[in-house]
Amino acid sequence: MISVENLEVEFSARPLFQKVSFVINSKDRIALVGKNGAGKSTLLKILAGIQAPTGGIVAIPKETTIGYLPQVMVLSDTRTVREEAELAFEHISTMRDELARMNAELAERTDYESEEYLNLVERFTHENERFNMMGGLNYQAELERTLQGLGFQRSDFDRPTSQFSGGWRMRIELAKILLQRPDVLLLDEPTNHLDIESIQWVENFLASRCNALVLVSHDRAFINNVTNRTIEISCGRIYDYKVKYDEFVNLRAERREQQLRAYENQQKEIADIKEFIERFRYKPTKAIQVQSRIKQLEKIIPIEVDEVDNSSLHLKFPPSVRSGDYPLICEDARKAYGPHEVFHNVNFTIKRGEKVAFVGKNGEGKSTLVKCIMNEIPYDGIIKIGHNVQIGYFAQNQAQLLNEEITVFDTIDLVAKGDIRLRIRDILGAFMFGGEASEKKVKVLSGGERSRLAMIKLLLEPVNFLILDEPTNHLDMRSKDVLKEAIRDFDGTVIVVSHDREFLDGLVTRVYEFGGGLVKEHIGGIYDFLQKKQWDSLDMLSSSKLTSGTSASGRVEVVADTSPSEGKLSYEQQKEFQKRVRKAEKAVKDCEDEISGLEAKIAEIEEQMATIEGASDASLYTKHGELKKQLDAAVEKWEVCSMELEEIQL
Predict the structure, then answer these.
(1) CB 437, CB 408: distance < 8 Å
(2) pLDDT for 487-516, tens place per residue?
(3) Of the residues 76, 130, 239, 531, which has the maximum number of CB atoms within 10 A of its CB?
(4) Which residues 6+ apart lie within 8 Å of 221 measured at CB?
């Protein structure tokens, strides 16, 4: 579908890529990986046609369409959600306006027998058939179905995009791309502002509906679940692996060992040649051999070793005073903004040394409760902070509190104490501030860089209670590993608000789920929680231990007992559950096969209609219309089956 040959990119005379070549085929789902600054986002922009390379060729067939989701989006604040999504159908709007113009001209003209009038009728008929063929009459229904599938309510459609958070704006942009149905999808960090449930929805879509995909992400679980091929950018070259990311990591380690052995052998060879030259340089009898060795040395092409830092870096929080047994107690906590109730009746106790996660959809109150705990906003109920508790708090706005007039190095040097000061540059390098970047002033840093700097600063402060709100959004995989290890070894108490399953795995032992104004407690790690979520629909039907109550807003809520014993299904229930899932999955698969078959038939007819003979064949247009109706019915059936499958798995 896309062929890249001898691609070269230079910035300020510094080569980023050199002679890069690869091909993107249909059904390829590629993870684009490499260290920060290696050029991943640049390569996506080149594939999307937004940036031109210094040299080389990017060959994209004329009929191939590309959808590009950038890491940072710019949406007009003057449009509503519906209007922004309608931009995906600009070509249809243009055709509709042209048809309206021609229709008005036909109504005004009276020269019915003239050649110009007959040509206008013929052109109007042809364009009208094309308009209907492209779904011009029902694109609004498709638009609404897609927005609702991405979690928007009908009441959201006419709200301006300015009222939505970054995560919801990303969904609007994603909806536009899906509605365009591109042949190749380019995604740059799509999970940065999504919650866990949204990430799983995107995973399911990419696994079942997209054609070809090139993905940049630091979410290890996401790329493992979505991709089947890994392309690494290293030392200005690419290495192409036809495997998932986890398998790639092992193969890359083997490759680097081979490079190191070859590099060591080459260095030994170079040392031997230099020694010979120095020993016999001034002996006339060896002049020919010396000149031969000099030429041999000049011809040696140095072996480069991949830019992989295998040095171990272990951070440990500085010692702090011991806190009380219960650092945090919430009793009947409630927060509302006017008539909108964010959460109510929140009751839980966190013991000293516990590490817990706050998860849930965007806008359900995770960060709001954190702000209540930090006493940044007023709330109802009781939130008690325990004895001797020293809180280290990381939020996105922490970056705004940094001193902008000093350098990155000095920012950390001011808080580092003792032996850790000798390792400041190693720590900065682990968080992508290596080399000259450590001498930058804070005021020139981007928002992501400031967030990383604020995280390093927090790691070096003596605290016994950490509250981290989305700490991994601007970290690469190595930085996340360093942070995760530091938190795992931390002997204090931790609350993590995060959507990164790989980061939370093995780190937390309790999960608090936010949703529908409630906060539910789940014992176990993040994958235990996700597994229980798949059983919830059956649990709610079969469990006799249900409690009901009325919220402050007057609605009745049902909450299942969350004790560990109630989270398990009996053997018979599991069999029945798996049977229902298999049946629903088969129904979805049958629909997808039917859709693929119909799309292939439609494409074949459209090829015939594009010929001179086919353009005048009325039977082709009739058959095409019938197939389109069948396709619409098949798509509606697929949506019903998919919703049934999702309801079973919720």
Answers:
(1) yes
(2) 998 889 999 998 888 899 999 999 999 988
(3) 239
(4) 500, 501, 502, 505
Task: Categorise residue 425: left if φ over 0, alpha if ψ from -120 to 50, beta otherwise.
Answer: alpha
Structure confidence by residue, pLDDT tens digits, 518-530: 999 999 999 888 8
Nearest-5° Cα angle at 396, 450 to 79 = 105
Q: Which two tokens stand for residue 234?
A: 């290293």
CB atoms within 10 A of CB 600: 10
The residues pairing with 17 across neighbouring beta strands, listed in sequence order, are 9
Q: If residue 614 lies in a helix (H) or strand (E), which one and from where to where?
A: helix 612-615
Residue 379 CB-density burial (10 A; 0-12 exposed, 13-18 middle, 19+ buried): buried
SS (HEC) of 423-465: HHHHHHHHCCCCHHHHHCEHHHCCHHHHHHHHHHHHHCCCCCE
For residues 446, 451, 457 and 459, what is the CA-based torsion angle, rounded to 10 degrees? -150
Residues 6+ apart with CB under 8 A from 167: 193, 194, 195, 198, 362
- 158 Cα distance to chain centroid: 26
- Dihedral sign, CA of 276, 280, 284, 286? negative
Q: What is the pLDDT of residues 456-492, one digit of tens each?
A: 888 888 889 999 988 887 777 777 888 898 899 888 9
Task: Please identify every stretch of the chain with a pLDDT value under 50, giving residue numbers as ranges.
Answer: 309-312, 536-569
Smallest Cα–Cα separation from 67: which of 201, 185, 232, 233? 185
Q: Report pLDDT for 357.
A: 94
Structure confidence at residue 539 (pLDDT): 37
